[in-house]
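Forum: Protein Structure Q&A
Topic: Joint prediction for protein chains with partners

I've read a bunch of threads here and the consensus seems to be that you should model interacting components together rather than docking separate models afterwards. I'd like to see that in practice. Below is the full input, 246 residues plus whatever partners are listed. Could one of the regulars post the assembled result?
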Amino acid sequence: MKENTNKYTIGIEATLEIIRGKWKGIIVYHLTTGRKRTYELRKLMPNLTQKVLTQQLRELEKDGIITRIIYNQIPPKVEYEISDYGWGLINILDSVCLWGEEHLDKVYGDKALVLKAESDVNF
Amino acid sequence: MKENTNKYTIGIEATLEIIRGKWKGIIVYHLTTGRKRTYELRKLMPNLTQKVLTQQLRELEKDGIITRIIYNQIPPKVEYEISDYGWGLINILDSVCLWGEEHLDKVYGDKALVLKAESDVNF
DNA sequence: CGGTATCCGACCTGATACTG
DNA sequence: CAGTATCAGGTCGGATACCG
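Posted by a regular:
Agreed with the consensus. Here's the joint model:
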């Protein structure tokens, strides 16, 4: 059943719904550097299991954030890419990320900066 | 035990962690219109139980987003207010909200606009 | 009035095994 | 290589009852 369709009161809820998934932020982050194959994503996120990865990718696809490109061949090949629509969200989230990093600085001090240095992109 | 201190890889994770709670967005939203007493918040969000409200407020407080003002008196009086630090986040989230609203338009069409009209503030 | 304690169910995530 | 199925564990939110 579950007719719990209590829709959002404010825009933030809608956005949150989309990136709430534990890994979605990181997945999208990795896609900002370019189209990726499934196993590439797996290598980039070793702690993320196949199942959950697929799951989260499906949701992101459903929300129109990413595009799934299927090469019909053997062995299978699938690539994921941020859609034009998705880029709109990402550009916005960029400032959120900056805030988040500053927040980390405040809360954890320098420790938080370690990982930051590992990437060029902010998001 | 649980030494799962796998800290964030990117800023977005930190921010998400803060507003991930199901009600946090809405709570903060209501506080944007000014300092509120506990029972005022409860009236504004009838579907939110006392326990969860307190819970989410505590977390927001821990993260420095809101301030808890305790009047030491009988009967008790407590007020919640967005901190200066919290406003920093909110200003940023504002553009996220706009995106969210547009997303709603895209996904649900006009239906999504109903609630939008009920408030002056974007967030 | 504001908050804590306890219990429970739903959901989300993860481990493992298997399919085309 | 990419994805599905199944099952188990943890976390979160919600209902209820009680305390200062």
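Chain B has one domain: 11-120.
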